Amino acid sequence: MAFTRDDYVVRAGWRSFWLVLLAVLGWTALTVGVWLAHRGIATDVALLVFEVIFIAECVRRARLATQRKVVLAVHSRGIFFGDGGSQETVPWSRICAVEFFRERVARVKSHTIYHCVGVRSLGTRQVQRPGNGHAAQPVPDRSILWPLNAGRPDLIPGGDGTVRHAYRRMDGWRVNQVRLTRAVHRYAPAVPVINGPDYTAPLSWGEVFQAKRAWRSFSR
User: Distance (Å, rounded) from C-alpha 90 to C-alpha 119?
Assistant: First the structure.
């Protein structure tokens, strides 16, 4: 896809490659230590599988950086999302807002926070689409009860009449928000650029207490 000088284009860089490479080196050192201490077929296979996954991701990011792949672009037809694995252009007719938000992903004993950029479209129920992560997955009915009982229906996907149509984690690359906003206003003046709700959207202690109290009253 060709872009013009008026378009705002973000390309993959080397930052994500170096981060993954450091992870590969650290995992390799850990693998050698574990292998020397606990030799066994099951352990060897598990360590080898994770090593291959890390190396494959390292190679993928090196390829993206070398080829200067476009990961995001604001152009006359809409907003292009691409990460080397999946790509699409969301037309302006489907976009009611461009949003920045944070996605919190839980690990075994920690969590990772990703800065994300995406677009919202009209809708009352979140639908899973290719290329999106956890922040754009349908929410189970049981999980909806928490923000609903807390008096925060605005945190429910579709509660305000919009859902996340597409987004990407800015993993190893960043967006200049000023330049992106200018490009959006150039091609779609009516489309706002907003700070959307984080995933998962945190509730205050008071809201959690209110949700628990409503849940107990409902369960009686």
Answer: 8
